[in-house]
Amino acid sequence: MSKPLLFSWIAAITAVIGSLFFSEVMQFVPCTLCWYQRILMYPLAILLGLAFYRNDQVIYQYVLPFSILGMILSGYHYALQKIPFLQTFEMCKSGIPCSGEYINWLGFVTIPLLAFIAFTIITVNMLLLRKN
After folding, report:
1. In the structure, what pLDDT confidence band is assigned to residue 11 with cuts at 50, 70 and 90?
2. Carries keyword Chaperone (predicted)?
């Protein structure tokens, strides 16, 4: 059993369930950047689950591009929410604004930060898997 695979899979499953909870239960409509982050995260839940089941030690080759791109995208999304200057460059012009905050726990925890944390956990674990 590979702990990096297990921890990555748990992070991906938690992120998928969390995003579905926010949209389907809480009725939060995802913005454009949220959709892109979902596109990057949802396949990871399946890939990492299969990799954990098969103890696939080279899955990092396929997961790292998704998780690193997800970190960049969710980091930008979080900065867009928290740095007012960046809102002048906002790309979400129709529908839900990407700078909007459905949640703001403790004054800094937003949905993009939660996604960033999940992508970071996956990336770190995949780098550990690669090292071994």
Report:
1. very high
2. yes
Share of the chain above pLDDT 90, in %: 85
Q: What pTM value is reported for the model?
A: 0.94
Which domains, from first to last, does the chain contain?
3-131 (1.20.1550)
CA dist 38 and 73 (Å) reads 11
Distances (CA, A) of 69 to 15, 64, 65, 75: 16, 8, 6, 10
Residue 69 CB contacts under 8 Å (≥ 6 apart), including other chains: 40
- Dihedral, CA of residue 58, residue 63, residue 68 and residue 71, to nearest 10: -130
